[in-house]
Write a structure and sequence with these properties.
By secondary structure, the protein is an alpha/beta fold. Helices cover 41% and strands 15% of the residues. The chain is globular, with a radius of gyration of 20 Å. About 2% of the residues have low confidence.
């Protein structure tokens, strides 16, 4: 590995949690990191919360395809300028395709991680990448079709959340200290990623779920909007009473302390699976291979119909230690990342 830094790009708030232990381990190994972050969702506040110095470059282009294209072009050029200044040895992200394009255009080795085969941007990021890291259940035909032949793919056993949660220590008092009533079952709810490129559909079941939760059932609901615009939309639709309005929560601690997680996305559900919290998927899009494998193993439950919503019941989970996640997969990822960056 050269003395040049590893460049990490954080394009969305889950990326901060994924790369925080990566950054810590790189620093333990004496490897310098430089970080860029897109001003979207809670990405920048999370960087500040976890002490990750980051240069903010670009914002979200909105829900329209034309806005996304305009944002992509401007962000690629700004990232090229950043890379020209910092001269990184390798560029790494969780499918931040603007970074992948910028790195490839400058001849910088690119590493991208991904775990959902139906993300259209895979076609771009995978083709730009020197190394593509995916779970071993990621379909081989999708990898080939999206530009990731086996010779440049690392298929690892486990979930990306095993890397993101490496070394995580739960705080049993976290929910109560945050002002959440944990004397009743605590249900953490995550809305759809309705501004994402892969999310081009309606999800009427999610509104039904929120109306059901408004009906009482003796639970404490923590509805975590992804963006201020989404929070405003939920407010307009009459769900403001469920929205979390306190200080930004550490999602990992909230998931570990909750009695159930119901998400219309993926990462928070998989965090729940790893941390031993009952997880329910109310995602309306195509279910990826990772989640299909968790459903088959009985570790993730599906909410697929109006009757499924009505049958949902929540109770306090059994008292048990939160599983600790070791750093073996994290270290494997970093070993491969650094090998790509060697001159």
């Amino acid at each position: 590995m050269s003395g040049r830094p590893v460049w990490i790009d954080l394009a969305n708030s889950p990326h901060v949690l994924f790369f925080r232990p990566v950054i810590d381990e790189l620093r333990r190994r004496g490897v310098e990191t430089v970080v860029t972050a897109r001003d979207f969702a809670q990405t920048v506040p999370l960087c500040e919360r976890f002490g990750i110095p980051a240069e903010v470059i670009g914002a979200h282009g909105g829900s329209s395809l034309s806005g996304k294209v305009r944002d992509l072009g401007g962000r690629v050029q700004a990232l090229r300028d950043f890379a020209a200044r910092t001269r990184p040895s390798v560029a790494v992200s969780h499918n931040a395709y603007a970074q992948a394009l910028a790195g490839r255009s400058l001849g910088i080795p690119v590493v991208t991680a991904m775990d959902y085969e139906f993300q259209p941007a895979n076609h771009l990021a995978f083709r730009c990448a020197t190394l593509v890291a995916v779970p071993d259940v990621f379909p081989l035909d999708a990898l080939r079709a999206q530009g990731a032949p086996l010779r440049k793919t690392w298929r690892y056993h486990g979930l990306k959340e095993h890397m993101a949660l490496a070394g995580f220590t739960p705080d049993s008092a976290y929910l109560k200290d945050a002002g959440i009533d944990d004397s009743r079952p605590v249900v953490v709810v995550r809305p759809p990623a309705d501004m994402a490129l892969y999310h081009r559909f309606e999800n009427p079941l999610f509104a039904q779920l929120l109306r059901r939760l408004q009906g009482g059932d003796g639970v404490s609901v923590v509805l975590l909007a992804r963006t201020p615009a989404q929070a405003e939309g939920l407010e307009r639709e009459g769900f403001g009473d469920l929205l979390w309005r306190g200080e930004m929560l550490d999602g990992r601690q909230a998931v570990a302390g909750a009695d159930a997680v119901v998400s219309a996305g993926g990462s928070m559900n998989r965090e729940a699976v790893v941390l031993g919290t009952p997880a329910y998927s109310i995602y309306a899009g195509k279910m990826g291979a990772v989640d299909r494998s968790l459903v088959a193993a009985g570790r993730l439950r599906l909410v697929e119909s109006a009757s499924d919503v009505e049958r949902l019941t929540f109770a306090k989970k059994e008292a048990a230690p939160v599983p600790m996640v070791d750093d073996s997969l994290l270290k494997q990822f970093i070993d491969r990342l650094l090998a790509v960056g060697r001159p």
